[in-house]
Amino acid sequence: xxxxxxxxxxxxxxxxxxxxxxxxxxxxxxxxxxxxxxxxxxxxxxxxxxxxxxxxxxxxxxxxxxxxxxxxxxxxxxxxxxxxxxxxxxxxxxxxxxxxxxxxxxxxxxxxxxxxxxxxxxxxxxxxxxxxxxxxxxxxxxxxxxxxxxxxxxxxxxxxxxxxxxxxxxxxxxxxxxxxxxxxxxxxxxxxxxxxxxxxxxxxxxxxxxxxxxxxxxxxxxxxxxxxxxxxxxxxxxxxxxxxxxxxxxxxxxxxxxxxxxxxxxxxxxxxxxxxxxxxxxxxxxxxxxxxxxxxxxxxxxxxxxxxxxxxxxxxxxxxxxxxxxxxxxxxxxxxxxxxxxxxxxxxxxxxxxxxxxxxxxxxxxxxxxxxxxxxxxxxxxxxxxxxxxxxxxxxxxxxxxxxxxxxxxxxxxxxxxxxxxxxxxxxxxxxxxxxxxxxxxxxxxxxxxxxxxxxxxxxxxxxxxxxxxxxxxxxxxxxxxxxxxxxxxxxxxxxxxxxxxxxxxxxxxxxxxxxxxxxxxxxxxxxxxxxxxxxxxxxxxxxxxxxxxxxxxxxxxxxxxxxxxxxxxxxxxxxxxxxxxxxxxxxxxxxxxxxxxxxxxxxxxxxxxxxxxxxxxxxxxxxxxxxxxxxxxxxxxxxxxxxxxxxxxxxxxxxxxxxxxxxxxxxxxxxxxxxxxxxxxxxxxxxxxxxxxxxxxxxxxxxxxxxxxxxxxxxxxxxxxxxxxxxxxxxxxxxxxxxxxxxxxxxxxxxxxxxxxxxxxxxxxxxxxxxxxxxxxxxxxxxxxxxxxxxxxxxxxxxxxxxxxxxxxxxxxxxxxxxxxxxxxxxxxxxxxxx
Length: 836
What we know:
Layout: H1 3-11, H2 37-40, H3 43-46, H4 51-67, E1 71-72, E2 80-81, E3 83-84, E4 89-91, H5 93-117, H6 122-125, H7 131-135, E5 158-165, E6 171-177, H8 184-197, H9 199-204, H10 211-223, E7 234-237, H11 246-256, E8 260-261, E9 266-269, E10 272-275, E11 288-289, E12 291-294, H12 317-322, E13 327-329, H13 346-353, E14 365-367, H14 371-381, E15 388-392, H15 405-413, E16 418-422, E17 428-432, E18 438-452, E19 455-458, E20 463-466, E21 475-481, H16 510-540, H17 553-566, H18 573-582, H19 590-602, H20 612-628, H21 632-653, H22 660-684, H23 691-704, H24 708-714, H25 721-730, H26 738-750, H27 760-773, H28 777-780, H29 789-813, H30 828-835
Parallel strand pairs: 3-21, 4-21, 7-8, 7-12, 12-13
Antiparallel strand pairs: 1-2, 5-6, 5-18, 9-10, 10-11, 14-16, 15-16, 17-18, 18-19, 18-20, 20-21
Helix pairs in contact: 4-8, 8-11, 16-17, 16-19, 16-21, 16-22, 16-23, 17-22, 17-23, 18-21, 20-21, 22-26, 22-29, 26-27, 27-29
């Protein structure tokens, strides 16, 4: 059966269980039960979509999104997978045209209002907007108000507008998002995924591609540079990988070709913003930043003038903006426009500042600081099913429980801090659910506009969102706007003017270099432990290797090696293996290393290929399989799948540009390989335990070091510890050997800008290589009193030197000195000690 036909029949029968008591405007089905004009153009294929087809598509969507690592987290909630519905939100050209005009005017109005509030303040002097609405809002940044003729007022380059349609089908603005508007990256990802899973349906409709819009945004950011800057350096300022919209920020940085930075990557010096160099503050910054596309709320952007103690911003940024030395997009202070108490005053503001009537009305709203508005709104809040929602004006994303006595007490004590907004009876769309049917759910649409040239240009499309349950992750839809003519230019942009071609090789900040260094280390740590788990499991699976009373001696040796690397939580080997694969809270476990690897890579997502995240998607599938099937054979199988995923990371990183970031990542990989190898050999070869046990242990070591085939081809006769040690320590042709690791580490360190050939890190590496070249394998592996003490001592010395080398690399290439600490975090005793 056709899903859309079933849906059309259902929404036209109000007696069905899911049908709303009050009528809603349906975005797909007209009042007479026929498809709306936009969907009629897709009817040939759309009506043919069956339950089986949508089930398949829904599964493919989830897989594609997981492979791309797309996630989202509401404030205070854990990270969740991004949700995309297989059925798009479709509009025709005529319906969009009216919305397009309204969005463009809205952005122009907000920009004019922002310039006025931080400049002449006409709307406040003429009492068009009550002063308390603006000056009492946390988003009004006083440091940027009336800064003088030299300082340009804050302005908007990018705006987002949340829209909803009422029962009559008329659009209303629910909220303006201009502080750090998010969603463009998610909208583009939705389109990319839908184009892969529903290509035929996509081809049937002539849609506006999104690529020209990103090209226009890039050109607008370049044009936003301060006067006199011909080749501006532009960065995207992110709160970091723990941000709720971290994927959106990284997508935008990649799509625009600008570095994704954090506040710790930047520094203000001589009134300008610079990329922080390695060994800051001992080295002078040389790479100036001209434009910052910020994704950090304004109050967190400058710990000196805005919010003391912020680790997300850059000390002195507000002063650099006032001097006109850097352009921040959107301007510091734009957040005041998100105040819901402004909504009732915008029609009058539009007439005063633009000389026009407001085309796109806001949802009805009341500022409770006004006596008449409060008298009108409060009785409606007391209704059994209130049609109004009340918000703290500083927190417009979370409605308050208006019937809560505590909330009412707050309103009575400070009514100017609150606004009431009418709850719109939103239009509905079909949403595919787990039950194998399309149910009607209310929908909102986020539209976007950028200032391109002299006007604001809305994105032809947007991001549609439905809420399937109060606590569930929002489910989104790709927004399709059909062209009236296939020849119409995409996004209404015929062509973005060509910009002068200049080469730019942005310097990586010390924080990014550190993340990439630890990317290499955690990747190698996880891989090596997985290999050892697989080798130990293989030894355990041999006949007679493990009984209820006792494991074979060779197995105990391998378990002891695992203990050296990750400790021991369980005496039962199977339980121990599962813990090493699944327990991300256990330091040293494979799960812990993989989790830390993901964290490190999230911090440099703009440096990495999109294919990178398939590694974690495949690992997650292996983990789910292991959790759901507690059979012993599943442990080795899941470990193998996880190892295969880790190995695929080699293929992804092999295609990275050979810049300092890649060299630092590879340096971390080979340093960690040396650490892991010396620890493993020190534990496993510390004693001689008899011919059979020694042979089994040596075979397992070679298996875990991926060198068993080489050993078999090279050495004949009995397996000896000296031969294995030579292959794994001294053989420069073996990629898994210590000698090869040190040699490769030298090459990568030499390629880094701060390396001089005589730095401490390079001197320590010289010392290591010299000492290793002098090792006589037969001597150090000689057994005295049943033990190989010289080998153990030598390996432990090498390990200690590798740890010193790691610290030396950090001192040379990462930020020098202690990390910044907020003054509010220092005790009086610490402050007195610092002064002394």
